[in-house]
Sequence to fold (136 residues):
Amino acid sequence: MKKEYLFVALISMLVFLLTCWTANYTVFAAGWAESIAYFALTYVVLRKFAEPGTYGVPYVVSIIVGRLLLEAFPRAIDFSGSLFSMFVPMLVVASVILASVYYRERKASVLILAVILLIVLNTTTHDAWIHLVRHK
Fold:
């Protein structure tokens, strides 16, 4: 394993620790904060480390693993109790993938589409998830 993959995973953990406090306000705030932070982090990491014209899959995986590793154990202990906030990690994974696609293509149309998808995921889809979990 290259040291830079581990470094990227550690940076991803740090970003999670810096943004997880937003969940104290609402789960929607956490979704917005983390999806924006991880979109930016992914783009910056890929711009710094990845080869141009690639998706930077090892770096994307490092970012996702770094994000999910810290909350995997608490979720495993009480999975059904954490379903309410399970959509936030899904938002993060989606934003990392969208940032990777934008890095590869580097077109304004791809960025606009990624932003629109993140807005839809953070609003309508997140509301639907909350409704689904509450009325289960």
Observations:
- The helical segments are 3-19, 27-49, 57-77, 87-105, 108-134.
